[in-house]
Amino acid sequence: MESGVRKKLLIGGLLAGSVAVTLFAIIFFTLGPLVFGDAPTAPGASAEDRRYAQKFEQILSFVTKNYVDEVDRQKLFDGAMKGLFASLGDPYSLYLTSSEMMSLTDTTTGEFGGVGLYVNKTDPAQAEKSTDSRDRWVDVVAPIEDTPAWKAGLLAGDSITKIDGEDVAALTMDEVLKRLRGQPGTEVKVTVLRGTSTTLDFTLRREIIQVPSVKSTWIGDDIAYLRITQFTAHTAEAFDAAVAEFTKKGFSRLIVDLRNNPGGLLEAVAKVGGRFFKDGVIVSTRSRVAGESTVFEAQGEQTIPDSVRIIVLVDKGSASAAEILAGALKDRKRAYLLGETTYGKGSVQQVIPFDKTGFKLTMARYYTPSGINIDKVGIAPNETLKDKELTDAQLGEYRKLLDAKTIQNFAQKTPKADADAVAAFVATLKAQGVTLEPRLLARLTRQELDRTNNRNGPVVDLDFDLVLQEAVKLLRGNSLVIP
Predict the structure, then answer these.
(1) Catalytic one among 331, 347, 360, 375?
(2) Can 78 be counted among the known catalytic residues?
(3) Mind listing the domains of the chain with CATH numbers?
(4) Concatenated DSSP letters of 280-333
């Protein structure tokens, strides 16, 4: 890259290969000698900066010349950089190895290899100091829809404790990625902690992951439904196409589903947000660095009339850019939020490539139109509603079904099973003493049939989805009031 040239790509979301996580407003740009300088006396560096840079140079030189064995300078540099960022105590500021940088590049293209998980992991050095035991594990922020992990049944909030039998506690994010990624068609086994004590094993077959963006359908003849799975470079275009189809038929009710949406491009969410408003603020970022504070406003491109009643579905897997849209719609009383409190990622990072490596540094925080920063807090819905969580006993039953491949065997023996056959199979399971709800058993069976037949599931599942059922009920009633 030419010295001093900056190339920016605004990203707001959880970016992962299989995947590394980067949350909200990531800015890529290359920095040459004009920025970093070729020596500790770089222009703009303070006297204190130069003094510490010279100390580091002296120590590095001494170690490389005097250590008893020949040393790998790249390993020394990587270790020093990891320690530097770990000392900040910020889980989102960290040094990125060449493979982690490659992972970020892969995901911005919208296609990458892996199992289809958005994950996060605290650096092992920081995890050792944490009082939360889950910081040792790999946090599943959200599975990507229609991918191996999603089809296998991994959920937001799961904790991966082992990969191919290896404990992940001592692994860095880079090492986690290397183990989850691989050639399409190969398999990786992950052990998951769900709830407080239930462990589940999943064998995932890797494939090329194409990141979905927008799915839409009608619920009955009166409610338009639009799911945004992630904000990519093509989301606004796909969103506009869906809304255009809704407009042809005429719509006055809309459900926007942001559940398990880990984020994505800041530019994309700003454009989509602008479709709901004539003008006004969608989101702002604030920093102590001049030029890093920005206000994103609607640009007079509203396509969803003010008369359309809107419900937005959110959950703990709704993060970053998804929270920007949800926050703008809630703050400006444009929509009614239904579901769970969102993930809570409101800080802004810059990812800065340097040679083949790079680093990610928190540079600012973002704020909703009312001036609220939701970092570590999330956005509370207007109405809290979530599906019933399984008890430990029910999770045990679920594990037994998985281990025995009971549902899998049924799907393989009767791949063309219709609704009546599924209902009969569920009735058989209940008669055998399985206490899981029939709707859950039916859903698990339908999902297994979809996997067996290599097909995607329906856009909506009103038989199983209690939150969606409530949204439909509210929109069809006359009691919906946006506070």
Answers:
(1) 331
(2) no
(3) 10-99 (no CATH), 104-210 (2.30.42.10), 214-348+367-384 (3.90.226.10), 392-464 (no CATH)
(4) SEEEEEE-SSTT--EEEE--S---S-TTSEEEEEE-TT--THHHHHHHHHHHTT
Hey, what are 246's tokens? 């809704």
Give whole-number Cα distances, 90 to 79, 183, 287, 347, in Å: 17, 33, 16, 10
Cis peptide before 19 (omega within 30 of 0): yes
User: String of b and e for 385-416 (b: at least 16 CB within 10 Å)?
Assistant: eeeeebeeebbebbeebbeeebbbebbeeeee
293 noted as active-site residue: no
Report which of 295, 303, 230 is spatially closest to residue 265, judged by C-alpha positions. 230
pLDDT on residue 386: 92
**Residue closest to 231 by CA, chosen among 276, 261, 275:** 261
Residue type present at position 44 = G
Q: Taking a C-beta distance cutoff of 8 angstroms, is the pair 426, 442 a contact?
A: yes
Residue 176 CA to residue 199 CA, distance in Å, equals 19
Q: pLDDT digit string (tens) for 123-178? A: 887 788 888 878 899 998 778 878 899 888 898 889 999 999 999 999 988 789 88
Q: What is the pLDDT of residues 407-456, one digit of tens each?
A: 989 999 999 999 999 999 999 999 999 999 999 999 999 988 987 887 77
Amino acid present at 301: E
What does the block give as tokens for 412?
Answer: 């393989």
Residue entry with tokens 């579905």: 313
Q: Which H or E element spans position 214? A: strand 214-219
Q: Which of 178, 271, 316, 345 is catalytic?
A: 345
Q: Does 320 participate in catalysis according to the annotation?
A: yes
* DSSP classification of residue 389: P
Catalytic one of 320, 347, 375, 465: 320
Q: Is the dihedral of CA 103, 107, 111, 117 positive or negative?
A: positive
